[in-house]
Amino acid sequence: MTSQRPRLRELSDRLGILPSYWDIRGHSHATSAATSEALAAAMGFDASSEADAEKSLDRLEHALREGLVDPVYVWRQWHAGAPALRVRAPATAFDYEIVLREESGRMESVRGRAAPGDAGRELDLALPFKPREGYHEVAITVSTPTHVETATQALVLAPRTCMELQEVLGDRPRFGIFANLYSVWSERSCGIGDLGDLSRLVRWAGSAGADFVGISPLHALRNRDLGVSPYGPVSRLYRNVLYLDLEAIPELAESPQARALLGDTTTLDALRTKPAVDYARVLSLKRRVLEALYRAFASAAHIGSSRARAFDAYRAREGDALVDFATFCALEDHFDASGEPHVPWDAWPAALRHPHSPQVRSFRERNAEAVTFHAWLQFETDRQLALAREAARDAGLAVGVYQDLAVGLAPDGADVWAFPDLFARGASTGAPPDDYASQGQNWGLPPLDPIRLRASGYRYWTRVLRAGFAHSGALRIDHVMGLFRLFWIPAGAPSASGAYVRYPADDLLGILALESRRHDALVVGEDLGTVPDEVRPALASWGILSSRVLLFEREPSGAFRPAASYPERAIVTATTHDLPTLAAFRDGSDLVLRERLGLLCGEAARADARTTRRADLAALMALLRSEGLLVEGEPSFAELCAAVTAFLCRTPSGLAGLSLDDLAGEREPVNVPGVPLERFPSWSRRMERSLEALAADTGIAGLLAAAARARPR
To answer: How far is the C-alpha of 368 from the C-alpha of 352, rounded, in Å?
Structure first.
């Protein structure tokens, strides 16, 4: 940013737009004035000229300093000390009363008098008592001879750390299995893995000595066309009802229509034999069955039943967020009923684009049954996920279900509609250019505005975490660097012209730690890629596990790092969902696919990729031989997989994750980053064999048994 724009620079700094960043190669990139202007505009501040930037800066400063106290204060628990209430005081002497209402209901007050000082000065006033960890409310009344003013502040007392490995597992490192739930299937599932399959998987994992089962995000999706990526959901508060196990829904016994639909073996066999999930057809079948099951639930026979009472309790617990989500789903059904292409919500009539408009309220009243149906779907999904966690506990898994929290949302999704003021318009999130994507990445996800997020008291972030931790023993935070800074790209601009925007990391991490302890769940941060120097020490300070991937752990020389070099506070895996499977890495089939997709253009690029792969394979073999896990010569895939499994379990990292795809020898990727879904059906590939067949495979049983010996319970 040039020195000719001092007001733009000052505004950008107050908005958290960083002036520059260092890339993965150690080069500095300055944020241009055009990018700063565009990102400020996305946050609602005009900076197209210095005069406009100055007006916006004045408006921002006034908003940030308006009122007696900040809207929220997150205080990290220490052995000594106590939080105080920071007040922007009047210039005259004043009397005050502070009332602290603890989350438990305890309430006490304190009165005092403060001496005169400078107008707007900040004073730290003592609270009536030090509350326990949790979410509390502080109210203050300030009185002068001519003026009385009141204000409230949300006070969050965060624990020192998230749940720690030793608290959950003791001193012994453990292992688990990772799977993409949609790709897993049993002989009973309907063309897509479901929560019944998750229960089957955790029981199998438990019998093999594993302590967790990690799965791809369960967030709600549109489940058709391009809306199938678990990392571009319509909501992070609610789940994908396509994962419902239809046979586990209690009303099946009461619905002949639902049983008839599930008895259509022609349809089911067609779905079960497809190599990829046919989202549209699975959705069509499951929706018809679920509508029939809901009619059975809503019948007079269920009035006052224990199941009806459980549904009512669920709705009361979820509150307005569930009502808004269910209303959004009913509105989408309404607009999609015509059979026309999907209509995004920002193309709906203007009166329906806000969740609290009179027209939306009227729609909800007229379509109460449809809204209740979508709420019931979430109730049943939550119940089945709870059953999966119970199955994990019964099977002896110390951690249980390890869930995944996506970094963002689809721009036309339910959460953006329900919380429109929290999301910046005119920008999307992504990543700067690096070795993985030379032009950078644009994920197309609207960013949360950090200033508005804080002004709201972090209520949305808290709800997102509670949804992610529900029935989890561990939660992975996708792109955890986004809690510190996130790469914003102006609409219509190339990815490389983006800039980083700063987030209130200590506040976000404090709430994360509080929810982690309330759910007795570990936290894993996905800290791969371009990681600022301060991030990993901060994550370690909060007790958050690092993600370490064998294929990424290299010395400057190119050699793979030895097992002993891995950190204890980490989860170690061989690959990720963005990388080729181990079988594909070995035989190069992923390179053939990249050639077919046009990602390796020209013979020189193809030859370079093949040469690099041969060198990478040789380096991996050298590592495994140096660890005594492979003998000389060309290993079979089974031998390579056994050696990699043994290597992961040999590291000192607290958790080792074995990919079910690798154990099964899958070659097709689940995702090819940077390739549109029209060109490659990412997030759709099903596993070649059923869960029953995998559980009966003696080779897989041997790998799991070896892991259990290396990392016993």
So the answer is: 16
- How far, in Å, CA of 206 to CA of 678, rounded? 39
Per-residue three-class SS string for 218-279: CEECCCCCCCCCCCCCCEEEEECHHHCCHHHCHHHHHCHHHHHHHCCHHHHHHHHCCCECCH
Mean pLDDT value across the chain: 94
Which tokens go with 414?
A: 């339910």
CB distance 185 to 687 below 8 Å = yes
Domains and CATH numbers, the chain: 6-65 (no CATH), 79-158 (2.60.40)
Backbone φ and ψ for 430, nearest 5 degrees, come out as -175, -145
CA distance 371 to 455: 30
193 and 181 Cβ atoms separated by less than 8 Å: yes
The answer to whether 652 and 713 have CB atoms below 8 angstroms apart is no
The bridge status of strand 134-144 relative to strand 147-158 is: antiparallel
Spatial neighbors of 45 by CB under 8 A, at least 6 apart, are 11, 15, 56, 59, 60
Indicate whether 374 pLDDT > 70.
yes
Over residues 704-709, mean pLDDT: 98
**What is the per-residue DSSP string for 567-605?**
-SSEEEES--TTS--HHHHHHTHHHHHHHHTTSS-SHHH
pLDDT of 674 reads 79
Range with the poorest average pLDDT among 34-48, 139-153, 329-343, 668-682: 329-343
- Bridge partners of residue 440, in order along the sequence: none
Which of 669, 614, 670, 662 has the alpha carbon at shortest distance from 638? 662
pLDDT > 70? residue 82: yes
CA atoms within 13 A on the CB side of 327: 23
pLDDT over threshold 80, residue 434: no
Closest CA to 177 of 143, 204, 197: 204
Phi, psi of 90 (to 5 degrees): -75, 170
Q: How far is CA 200 from CA 194, 404, 527, 598, 655, in A?
A: 10, 19, 31, 39, 22
Check residue 106 and report its DSSP letter. Answer: -
pLDDT tens for residues 254-263? Answer: 999 999 999 9
Instruction: Write down the pLDDT at residue 28.
Output: 87
How far is Cα 458 from Cα 629, in angstroms, rounded to an integer?
Answer: 49
Kindly state the helix (H) or strand (E) to which residue 618 belongs, with its residue range.
Answer: helix 603-626
CA distance 9 to 26: 24
In angstroms, the CA 44 to CA 685 distance is 41
Nearest to 345 by CA among 337, 356, 335: 335
Residue 597 is predicted with a pLDDT of 92
Q: What is the pLDDT of residues 95-106, one digit of tens each?
A: 999 999 999 999
Which pair of structure tokens corresponds to residue 569? 């506070």
| CB contact set of 312 (below 8 Å; sequence gap of 6+) | none
Q: 440 versus 381: which is more confidently predicted?
A: 381
Q: What's the pLDDT at 601? A: 85
What was the pLDDT predicted at 437?
66
Count the helix, strand and coil residues of the chain and give each as a percent rounded to the nearest 5: 45, 20, 40
386-398 average pLDDT score? 98
pLDDT tens sequence across 275-304? 999 999 999 999 999 999 999 999 976 788
